């Protein structure tokens, strides 16, 4: 037991066993807080995708538990450059090219389409991409067996006369806890309970993404030796293409490097399909990039079995918690964002650090609301700012922000917009939250 903490007279239900739910479980274990994780799926990590964490988020993992950082390092696959770089930025769309394949900047300087315009540097420190399922496996290793119950889809939460929360599951069973922490992702049921169905509803961002992996050997054939080995962003009108190398010897039979491709593309005002990941044809996908450079067309032509991922986000929540019954939202359930600044899961980690430490400081059910309030006051502004600026970043990368295709203004914005995310001192947030808790 933590020598400074008192025995807890409350116990918590964590709904959802994604990155948020499992990281929070580790953070709470540290303080000997009794918890049970309820997951609707039959096991953890059923849905896989790549997730990137920048250096500040990896530092926050370590603050929660060195084991999380070590697990991250075991499964992360970043090929670091010196100095560290987030992306080289290029124009990949030939729509406004002159006869020599150039576009003009404001001052008349020519920029060749496809050539690097500038580099967005990253911060120093361990960072990189992980496969979500692999990272979840590492988190699970840090938890005792039997902490989670599967096939428990939460449908409702009611309150007992004593103030406890009763969780009702789709299989007809119930469970009683002092409070519920909703880590149930973008389609969160707990969010609907804290806000209301309309306020909780995710909205389509107007963008969708294709995702795929290309063997490095193949990428070198049409991109040359250098370009595929470091992260690249190809910007265009209503679309952008990201490629970055991942070191992974397992996917392609011992081949040391692969290129992962992510594409976001604005195509429709609304998304009506109830599914957010749908199959599409290669022809339809290639049609989206018909006006782009040969290199970008080459990247897209090598994306096998393309899926479309519709990108949704939440509108700002007016609160992250309620007291009757006690529910507190965390991670995507509280603030789902588009991926255009690559920080959604990082924000989940920050939430876990702050809430975990606050809950570690209290010992009784009566203090829970105060802890939730302090967490809400500190975390909500930052997390909601990410949602808003991420949406704007999607517009910037696709030359439809206020800067349009003024490349000087574009560069200025791109070079400064990540600082507030990456240079943030999360320990200061915690200090502020602690002051609120003790006030
Ligand atoms: C295309 C794309 C790219 C991204 N890239 C990045 C990136 O590079 N970097 C980054 O930081 N972030 C990225 N993100 C965001 C990141 O993936 C999410 O922020 C993060 O995974 C959210 O984790 P979570 O645990 O809060 O939610 P989820 O991962 O959605 O987990 C929720 C869990 O709750 C369970 N659940 C749902 N409903 C119920 C219920 N009613 N009862 C019980 N259990 C339930 C689910 O089965 C699931 O296991 C990206 C997102 C997308 C869509």
Give me some keywords for this one:
eight-stranded mixed β-sheet, alpha+beta, FAD, 35% helix, D-Amino Acid Oxidase, Chain A, domain 2, binds flavin-adenine dinucleotide, 439 residues, FAD/NAD-bd_sf, elongated, flavoprotein, FAD/NAD(P)-binding domain, six-stranded mixed β-sheet, 15 helices, FAD binding
How many discrete structural domains?
Answer: 2
Classify the beta-strand content into a percent band.
25-35%
Whole-number average pLDDT? Answer: 90
Count of DSSP H/I helices: 15
The bound ligands are:
flavin-adenine dinucleotide
Radius of gyration: 23 Å
Shape: elongated
Major beta sheet summary? 8 strands, mixed
Sequence of strands across the biggest β-sheet: 7-4-15-16-17-14-19-18
Structural class: alpha+beta
Low-confidence stretches: 249-257
Question: Which CATH class of the largest domain is shown?
Answer: Alpha Beta
What does this protein structure show overall?
It is elongated, with a radius of gyration of 23 Å. Helix 1 packs parallel to helix 4, helix 3 packs antiparallel against helix 4 and helix 12 packs antiparallel against helix 15. It has two domains: 263 residues, FAD/NAD(P)-binding domain (3-Layer(bba) Sandwich), CATH 3.50.50.60; 148 residues, D-Amino Acid Oxidase, Chain A, domain 2 (2-Layer Sandwich). About 2% of the residues have low confidence. The chain is built from 15 helices and 21 strands. A hairpin with a 5-residue loop joins strand 5 and strand 6. The protein is α+β, with helices and mostly antiparallel strands. The chain has an eight-stranded mixed β-sheet, with helices on both faces. Strands 9-2-1-13-21-20 form a six-stranded mixed β-sheet. It has a three-stranded antiparallel β-sheet with strand order 10-11-12. The protein binds flavin-adenine dinucleotide. Flavin-adenine dinucleotide binds next to helix 1, strand 3 and helix 11. It comes from Bimuria novae-zelandiae CBS 107.79.
């Amino acid at each position: 037991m933590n020598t400074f903490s008192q025995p807890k007279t409350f116990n918590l239900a964590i709904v959802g066993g994604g990155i948020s739910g499992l990281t929070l479980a580790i953070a709470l274990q540290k303080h000997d807080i009794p918890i049970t994780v309820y997951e609707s799926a039959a096991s953890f990590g059923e849905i896989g995708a790549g997730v990137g964490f920048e250096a500040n988020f990896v530092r926050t993992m370590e603050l929660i538990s060195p084991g999380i950082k070590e697990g991250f390092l075991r499964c992360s696959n970043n090929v670091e450059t010196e100095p560290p770089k987030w992306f080289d930025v290029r124009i990949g769309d030939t729509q406004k090219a002159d006869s020599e394949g150039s576009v003009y900047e404001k001052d008349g300087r020519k920029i060749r389409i496809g050539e690097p315009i500038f580099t967005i540097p990253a911060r120093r420190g361990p960072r990189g991409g992980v496969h979500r399922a692999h990272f979840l496996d590492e988190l699970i290793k840090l938890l005792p067996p039997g902490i989670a119950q599967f096939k428990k889809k939460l449908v409702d939460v009611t309150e007992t006369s004593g103030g406890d929360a009763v969780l009702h599951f789709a299989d007809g069973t119930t469970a009683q806890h002092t409070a519920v922490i909703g880590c149930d992702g973008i389609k969160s049921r707990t969010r609907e309970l804290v806000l209301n169905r309309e306020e909780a509803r995710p909205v389509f961002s107007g963008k969708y993404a294709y995702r795929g992996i290309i063997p490095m050997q193949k990428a070198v054939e049409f991109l040359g030796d250098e370009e595929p080995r470091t992260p690249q962003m190809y910007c265009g009108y209503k679309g952008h293409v990201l490629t970055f190398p991942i070191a992974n010897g397992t996917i392609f039979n011992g081949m040391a490097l692969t290129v992962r491709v992510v594409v976001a593309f604005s195509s429709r005002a609304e998304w009506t399909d109830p599914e957010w990941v749908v199959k599409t044809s290669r022809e339809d996908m290639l049609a989206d990039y018909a006006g782009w450079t040969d290199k970008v067309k080459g990247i897209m032509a090598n994306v096998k079995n393309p899926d479309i991922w519709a990108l949704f986000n939440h509108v700002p929540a007016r609160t992250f918690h309620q007291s009757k019954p006690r529910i507190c939202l965390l991670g995507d359930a509280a603030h789902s964002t588009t991926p255009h600044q690559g920080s959604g899961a990082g924000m989940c980690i920050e939430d876990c650090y702050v809430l975990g430490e606050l809950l570690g400081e209290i010992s009784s059910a009566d203090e829970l609301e105060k802890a939730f309030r302090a967490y809400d006051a500190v975390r909500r502004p930052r997390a909601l700012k990410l949602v808003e600026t991420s949406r704007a970043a999607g517009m910037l990368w696709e030359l439809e922000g206020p800067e349009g295709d003024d490349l000087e203004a574009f560069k200025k914005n791109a070079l400064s917009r990540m600082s507030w995310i990456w240079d943030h001192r999360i320990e200061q947030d915690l200090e502020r939250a602690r002051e609120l808790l003790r006030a």
